[in-house]
Amino acid sequence: MHSKSVFVYGQVKRALRSGRYAPGQRIDPATLAAEFHTSATPVRFALYRLVGEALVVDQARGGLHVPLLTEVAMHDLYDWMERLLLMACDIGVAPGARKTDQLELASADDDPVKLTWQLFDAIARATAHRSLHHAVKQANDRLAPIRRAKQGLIEHGFEELSELYRHWQTRDMPALKSALRDYHERRKRLVPRIVALLSDHSDYLH
Fold this sequence. Notes:
The protein has helices spanning 3-18, 29-35, 40-52, 71-91, 112-125, 130-149, 157-169, 173-205; strands at residues 26-27, 57-58, 64-65. It is mainly α.
């Protein structure tokens, strides 16, 4: 892939994680081409690579958008992430794997979406199972815009994340698995409200 396309791909992927683009929002290739001082071709290559990763959807004449999931699709995505992380806990930390980066959760002012992404990535990466880590990264990236958009619906989110961090740092896998189940069950129950919130926001964007 052309180096310019790789650059645009990385920038848009980071923008999706950061919340620059909300679920349902249109991504305009011409705007990106102007922003990154390039032609439309590398931008389209980058965006269609993201389409292949389910991070962007092509609505034909409607253009390219951040996915706006149905209740069933969102529930399935949360369930998939839960199953992947529980599998990672069952595999455990690979022998000889370096002590994973000491993740720090300093205060409620920290970015919970970024910290959640980092924690789940660390759990999967520590298994040294590349396919599992790749699957978690994909699910993590798909969930990032949703996590950012629905933050106001989660009560005691900092305490919940702190508990997950504590169990991971102490490598208490049974406690971590229990906390991960609770974390995902809470979100699966909220799926109808999350979808309604995102749909309302998407209508506003249009």
